[in-house]
Amino acid sequence: MSMPFGYASPEQIMRDKADYARKGIARGRSVVVLQYVDGILFVAPNPSRALHKISEIYDRIGFAAVGRYNEFEELRLGGIRYADINGYTYDRSDVTGRGLANLYASNLGRIFTESIKSLEVEVVVAEVGDTREGDAIYRLTFDGSVFDEHGFAAMGGQAEAVSGRLKERYRESMSLADALEVALTALTEPGGERPPVGQLEVAVLDRNREHRKFLRLTGARLERLLAQTTTPPAATPPSSGDAGEAGGTGGTEGAGGSGGAGGPAASGGSAGSGGALPPTGPEGDVDDGSSPL
Amino acid sequence: MASHRDLPAGLVNQIFHNTGSSSFTEFVSSYAPDLLPRRDEVLATPIGDQVPHATTIVAATFAGGVVMAGDRRATSGNIISQRDVEKVFRADDYSCMGIAGTASTGLEFARLYRVELEHYEKVEGRSMSVQGKANRLATMIRGNLGMAMQGLVVVPLFAAYDPDKDEGRIFSYDVAGGPYERERFDAIGSGSIFARGSLKKLYRDGASADDMAMTLIQALYDAADDDSATGGPDVTRKIWPIVSVIDADGFRRLTEEQVSGYVQQMLDARMISPDGPIAPLR
User: Fold this and answer.
1) Contact (CB<8Å) A110/B3
2) Three-class SS of residue B95?
3) Of A135, A284, B124, B280, which residue is the least packed, with the fewest Cβ within 10 Å?
4) Which of the following CATH numbers is that of domain B53-272: 3.60.20.10, 3.30.160.250, 3.40.50.2300, 3.30.360.10?
């Protein structure tokens, strides 16, 4: 690495790189990954339908990322190649989330130390097991650190705030509707509006599926699921109250479960989307909107 | 073979450099060519008769989908090398392939083809078109021509549900590739002549999946009746043909119970009329 302006200490260089990467990552919107009873749920506010932040890597492995699209897309493609070639060489069951997380970690770490600019990405590699105990969520940061998360992970945007809200509400073995509710609550600033259905990217790794566990939830399926949550999204304001009532009175499995959760989510549901909360909160999403996504 | 696991970290990252194509095969051929089926070997003697051969596969469309079925026999020359071999494979959620010819090569193709389709889907974020899938398989078969000339012939039959047309489609191949799209039904393998004759008489346009599964089981029985390399239902060992159905809901393989139900029905009827259902003359 050339030093055009004389000497800079390694500490300084690393600090600068890390600051640079952190700023880049914080510009985007948050992504939430959490466990539910049948597997792992990924939720990302994402206005683009073509550029995914969540993706399938292999039969049991999913991928979520925040930051620069071109950078994490390359990681994603590399991951798919790694997984497919491993599964083809050995057996499909020999492709593990841990192996992929290690591959990513070594790459991110190497790029962080060797390149002038580190990757401005944060990545989650999640693997669904046959039972809840077999599930794994690995979060990888731009410098190659790996965090073995338990139950949930949040990254990008106001990651700490989102993570805090997630921690408050997360419970083990939630139904899918409950988990989605928790994720959306965590992704929304108190008093803020929820992202509309059309701007949500949602996917699951469902352990009960055959062959490939990864499934994108889109269109009608996602809307049905959102209707089961206690607080409907802000997509269609006139009908949102109706959907909330239907969820509350329908006595469906999901609605009943989330009603039992209590807390601010339940009270918000009865008053429409976020109605019980003060109207002075910042509008829109948690980020400043300058991200390409 | 140098597995990427044994390589130092720097070399592993070649995985991030070859980003030119969505094809898994193309990537592997530059990354770990030894993993692919060999195409350039020259065998001292043809070994065609010594390795197990898979035999008859039949497929037919029905209203809104396609059914594929295969018998369970593998033969090496005049020996039955396996009684319960599986020759119909799920390729992805909406397609499947059956193989006839050298069983080992066919298995390898099926495994590679599945990864190939899935790889494309994951990389591109969309499923490959049905025609694209058929063409891709043709290229793989064409690549095997050299080995086929030395006796390692493998010929697939490909069936898929086409969501754009809401119908099932069938493609067949020869040793040099293809694909040849087939209307209504087709059969490959040693018993295919007899199976095709049977299907010609039994096929009904607009039949249900249920009826078409029965039709294919009849056709396989007719093939087994006249071809020594095709296995009939093994009643004593309870080995039934493999039947797979693909429609708008995706690929599903019928369970043992379902297939044994069809087989029992057919056998009961054939106890009275051994040549099977009789097609109307006029």
Assistant:
1) no
2) strand
3) B280
4) 3.60.20.10
